[in-house]
Amino acid sequence: MTRQLIVSIGFLAAAAAHADIYRWVDAEGRTHFSDRRPPENAVRLTMPETHPGTVSTGASEDSPYSAPGLGPYATFAIVVPAAGAVLEQATPVLAISLQLDPPLLEGHRLELLLDGRPVAVDAGSAQAHTPDIDFGAHRLQARVIDRLNAVLAATPVHAFELRQSLPPGVIP
Question: Exposed site from 35, 37, 75, 164, fewest CB < 10 Å?
């Protein structure tokens, strides 16, 4: 009897671990998630399989980007450049500003990924400049990394375009 009870609990736990999760937006614009009976406009989400002792970022192994998440922070966002921005400037230098609340916690560091490559960020700073990037389309994400190099928080990936401005009097 005890063995049968243990096996039944194991099957129930496995079923719960692979339960369907649904996401929908209500009439007030709030996003909801549930594993219960969803309304008609709900979208079924595919959850990545995890194993005990691991954390899933939701990103594929060949992707340099992490899934967005706030971790221990109330606010974590890329302020400049704005998502979808088209920046026209004479030089290919990009100014980046982040919003982080509370400020970076002890043992954490910021990491920026521009087109999948790391960009240097001064310790304790929420701003950076990239020297000489190409004009064109780019993708930017900020992440908070802990002492063990684990991603604790990540912003959504911002796509933006950097265009070279024309000198006065030049018509394209």
Answer: 37
